[in-house]
Amino acid sequence: MKKHKIIISLIDRIGKHACHRGHKIGDKFDFDTDRGKLCPMAMHVAFPYIDILRYGGMPPCSSNGDIRFCCPDADVINVFRLEMVK
Fold first, then answer.
1. How many domains does the structure of the chain reveal?
2. What is the DSSP string of 36-69?
3. pLDDT at 86
4. CA-to-CA distance for 70 and 23, rounded, in angstroms?
5. Are 77 and 13 in contact (CB under 8 A)?
6. What residue numbers bound the domain in which 31 lies?
7. In angstroms, rounded to a whole number, what is the distance separating the alpha carbons of residues 1 and 8?
8. Model pLDDT, residue 1
9. Three-state SS for 26?
10. pLDDT (tens digit per residue) in 38-55
11. What 3-state DSSP class applies to 47?
12. Which of 25, 50, 54, 56 has its C-alpha lying 20 to 30 A from 86's C-alpha?
């Protein structure tokens, strides 16, 4: 079974402080090739969603119909979107 490409995009920031890793809204990461570039804490949160997508499941969607997750840093709270490219 071929794994689909997963793109992680930073789409918003809710917290009051800038990202400690330097991520900015508009940054995009390929799950397979950019793993060392994405903050390890954000990747830790993203992985279960990505695992569900890659094995044919569907994680919960936002009110916009896309798949989102947040950075676990309470001062930053970056909001990321996952897209599966078939």
1. 1
2. TTS-HHHHHHHHHHHHHHHTT--PPP-TTSSEEE
3. 77
4. 13
5. yes
6. 5-85
7. 22
8. 60
9. coil
10. 999 999 999 999 999 888
11. helix
12. 25
Scored b (16 or more CB within 10 A) or e, 23-33 reads beeebebebee
Q: What is the mean pLDDT of the chain?
A: 92
Amino acid in position 63: S
Maximal C-alpha separation, the chain: 42
DSSP 8-state assignment for residue 3: P
Instruction: Output the six-digit token pair for 72.
Output: 């676990």
Q: What is the rounded average pLDDT of the residues 60-84?
A: 94
pLDDT at residue 85, rounded to an integer: 86
User: Residue 48 corresponds to which tokens in the numbers above?
Assistant: 């279960």
Q: And the tokens for 17? A: 């402080």
Give me 15's structure tokens.
Answer: 């917290």
The type of residue at 65 is G
